[in-house]
Backbone:
């Protein structure tokens, strides 16, 4: 019988070690991460001008629609199929790329102790079908994050097509490299094993001596989205009034609400990545809170020293910077290390948002300054602050080298692939007209306005 799980399978551990508590937590975490994308819509929408807020929010909601469908059809298979079979290429591009293998395998049953149950697919105490749902939400928000760099000027239809192609050719392969046993994982066929050798565990499994650490998506989500945002901002060009007029957020309470939802949902993002309700999950929760609070204060301190004011938008942006930085590191640091990582992230991102004016690219809502900069710092900072293996904890330089290399590979891979996809999509038309941009993308593209002011 498909989709039938006997009651005794969750009492509290089933015949294959399924845990009702862990499963319930990961399902809850998946819902929290999905909620983050509407939160991002409020965050980005509030930062936008009044005449483009609906389009900005629609780009996030559109990502939910496109990416969710694609993830079920072939996204999970490309990202994790070899994690079930134990075999496959290191990039994930050729692992059953356009099949239902990954999901359909999870819906098969087998008889255990006389009862039909799921195959687990190698995700411990959580049924793998639950992991499908959890990972789907990561793919959704990664695409949505990119949209902040192209606000007010990109055609909505082109955005949806780009998102579908990008998640297939960039996100899924990178997820496989990091989490699916590929090039950037700790597997014996990864670069870290080639660089520093392998070790054999008691159960006979072979892995890298010094494994890359990306607990919840520093490379896969934030560096990935940040680099894609930078490439699109450069190729798409500046808004017509960029550098000539001031772009002020039209609704700062929306920004604060969005930041609050993101912080709330991020506990699903980070803590859910443990895959269990255990002590490590508790450590991740505390580390996530510590880094985020410190980053907010770090951003506000830079604002106060530089501009003479500590702003609400700065507080919200600092929160996001801290969440981004701690994402890859949350399972590897102590709470004190998390405070250091977060404080530095908030200061770095606060300083980095001015780069777009100096270098001349129009990253509308500072995706590069926040997600790329804090994502890079969070990933590389692990090599300094990780317990046992970090340089500051007597672990030597090996972890730092590994973290630097995985960050560099992610940057190069995403930059090249995003550029190729951008030119593939170019015939569809990237930008709305100057007249439509002046009138407002909400009215000209969606035939709506956020506020009916009579």
Residues:
């Amino acid at each position: 019988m498909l989709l039938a799980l006997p009651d005794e399978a969750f009492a509290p551990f089933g015949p294959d070690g399924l845990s009702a508590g862990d499963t319930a937590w990961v399902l809850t975490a998946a819902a929290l991460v999905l909620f983050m994308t509407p939160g991002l819509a409020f965050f980005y929408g509030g930062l936008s001008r009044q005449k483009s807020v609906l389009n900005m929010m629609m780009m996030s909601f559109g990502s939910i629609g496109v990416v969710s469908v694609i993830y079920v059809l072939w996204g999970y298979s490309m990202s994790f199929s070899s994690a079930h079979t134990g075999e496959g290429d290191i990039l994930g591009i050729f692992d059953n790329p356009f099949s239902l293998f990954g999901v359909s395998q999870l819906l098969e049953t087998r008889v255990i102790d006389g009862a039909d149950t799921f195959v687990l697919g190698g995700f411990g105490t959580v049924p793998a079908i639950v992991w499908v749902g959890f990972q789907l939400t990561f793919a959704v928000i990664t695409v949505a994050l990119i949209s902040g760099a192209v606000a007010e000027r990109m055609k909505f239809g082109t955005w949806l097509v780009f998102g579908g192609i990008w998640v297939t050719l960039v996100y899924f392969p990178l997820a496989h490299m990091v989490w699916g046993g590929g090039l950037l994982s700790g597997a014996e066929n990864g670069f870290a094993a080639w660089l520093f050798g392998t070790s054999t565990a008691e159960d006979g499994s072979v892995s890298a001596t010094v494994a890359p650490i990306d607990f919840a998506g520093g490379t896969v989500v934030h560096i990935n989205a940040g680099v894609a945002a930078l490439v699109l901002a450069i190729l798409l060009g500046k808004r017509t009034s960029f550098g000539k007029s001031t772009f002020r957020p039209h609704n700062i309470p929306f920004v604060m609400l969005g930041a609050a939802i993101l912080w709330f949902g991020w506990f699903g993002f980070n803590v859910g990545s443990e895959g269990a309700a255990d002590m490590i999950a508790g450590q991740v929760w505390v580390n996530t809170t510590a880094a985020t609070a410190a980053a907010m204060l770090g951003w506000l301190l830079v604002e106060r020293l530089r501009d003479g004011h500590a702003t609400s938008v700065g507080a919200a942006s600092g929160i996001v910077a801290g969440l981004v930085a701690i994402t890859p590191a949350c399972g590897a640091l102590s709470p004190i290390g998390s405070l250091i990582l977060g404080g530095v992230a908030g200061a770095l991102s606060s300083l980095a948002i001015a780069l777009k004016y100096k270098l001349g690219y129009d990253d509308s809502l500072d995706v590069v300054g926040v997600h790329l900069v804090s994502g890079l710092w969070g990933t590389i900072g692990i090599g300094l602050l990780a317990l046992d293996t970090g340089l500051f904890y007597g672990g030597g330089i090996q972890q730092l080298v590994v973290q630097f290399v995985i960050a560099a590979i992610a940057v190069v891979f995403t930059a090249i692939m995003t550029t190729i996809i951008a030119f593939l999509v170019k015939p569809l038309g990237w930008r709305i007209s100057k007249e439509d941009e002046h009138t407002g993308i909400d009215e000209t593209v969606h035939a709506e306005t956020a506020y009916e002011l009579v």
